[in-house]
Amino acid sequence: MTELRPSERELLNAFQAGEARALARAISWVENARPGFERLLSALHDRVGRAQRIGITGPPGAGKSTLIHALAQVVRGNGEQVGVVAVDPTSPFTGGALLGDRIRMTSAAGDDGVFIRSMASRGSVGGLATTSREVADLMDAFGFERVFVETVGVGQSELEIAEAADTTVVVLTPESGDSIQAMKAGLMEIADIIVVNKADRPEAARAAGELKTILRIRQGKAFDRIPAHHGVDLSEITRRKLAPGSGGEPSSTAGEAAEASGAEAKEWEIPVLLTVAQEGEGIDGLLAVLDAHFEWLGRSGVLEERRRQRLLERVRAVVDRGLRTRVWREGDGEAILERARADLESGRRTPYDVAGEILGALGPGSGKG
Amino acid sequence: MSERKIRVLVGKPGLDGHDRGAKVVAAALRDAGMEVIYTGLHQTPEQIVNAAVQEDVDVVALSILSGAHMTLFPRVLKLLQEAGVDHVLLTGGGIIPSEDMEKLQVMGVGRLFGPGTSTSEAVDYIREWFAEHRAADE
Lengths: 369, 138
Ligand SMILES: Nc1nc2c(ncn2[C@@H]2O[C@H](COP(=O)(O)OP(=O)(O)OP(=O)(O)O)[C@@H](O)[C@H]2O)c(=O)[nH]1
Ligand SMILES: [Mg+2]
Description:
heterodimer; A: 369 residues; alpha/beta; 7-stranded parallel sheet; 15 helices; B: 138 residues; Rossmann fold; 5 strands; binds guanosine-5'-triphosphate; binds magnesium ion
């Protein structure tokens, strides 16, 4: 393993001593891709993996921050340490960002037991998803038992961030259109738990019912090899598979038995919950479901499998980032591009030809393919 | 790939309920390419400093219209120092008489902006301060 430089060692020591300032600074290093940040992450790697990572996503204004605050209050009360990463978009026009999630996440008490970090999406070198995962890693390594990651669920990278969570909560409101929007943005595919917040508004129960129907239809599709005869309630089958200790239950048909043994632990029935985040209503219920999901992840082996996958993904992402850095920041990429500009513009050379030269400059063999 | 972003916390301590000024400044700093963390109304100095630490900001800008600037600015300054974040610029604006501004600057507060100052002045000031004090850091 590479040796840490003195400034890195110093930060690592402060971090390990539990200084909030050191965590904050380490996050900045990662965000800014400051030289040495990967050595720091590497040194902290064996401390990562204890926290439950909870992705909270949904349309703008659905109440994500308010919900996280309400959840954090409860788990803080149980003595847990909590970290929050709140991602908001960077303006593509100015490069600036207005990060306002803290407004809904501070209480009159000023509890500093919750560490909140606002993050702008920027044009991260390694991609926003990788950066925010690394920030979550830092919070995990710092010792927080739960790390919430808030993203606005509209774009692709937000979905990626949410997917990096152990548990993804999609927050919607009773307003008609939210569920359609959620489907369009692909939110239903990533949800482990769906919350209809602002349940103090009319139509909340109807919205929840609608979502349940959508989920049932989607689940029904997964069983379309089973003949749809009378008396088989598909949701009932799923529920039975889910119930702890239901493994020994006799199945009525061979097909169903095969289905059950093959998919037994793989099934998680996505619950639809109602909350009034502002009033703290439904928060205990949500917390119970979060715990149940984490417990299911562990029991089913899904968590372990995902974490194995993530290790491989991380290596690929870090290699991608390193290559980009080597080509564009440290290497001759920009210089070659600048030299080739006139030829490119006049049509004497093609973009592929120039790209080949840039890749070729990395070393033998790099330009092939 | 790009130069380091300037991170600014815009806070609104105290009891007065007007945050239009703070919001206008926050938007102007954002439009100038900065990352602005807006913390909302009625923040205590402790909350502001706690947020400044967690967010690892370069600048804390306070909007104070309540007349409590002679207690709030020194309090935030002291808490920042106690928290070990003395590399942060504390600046702000509001209805502050010029002799108070001078007193505060002697204590270590940065430039303060009275009502009617154009937001571009604050933008320029923060940029210059950053270039001089922080740009060379990590
Ligand atoms: N009526 C009602 N309003 C709520 C509830 N929860 C949150 N709100 C309000 O909804 C607004 C948005 O809440 P936020 O928590 O900021 O929502 P968000 O999803 O984090 O918003 P963005 O981060 O901007 O996408 C605020 O004015 C909240 O006070 C609720 O349960 N009922
Ligand atoms: Mg929010």
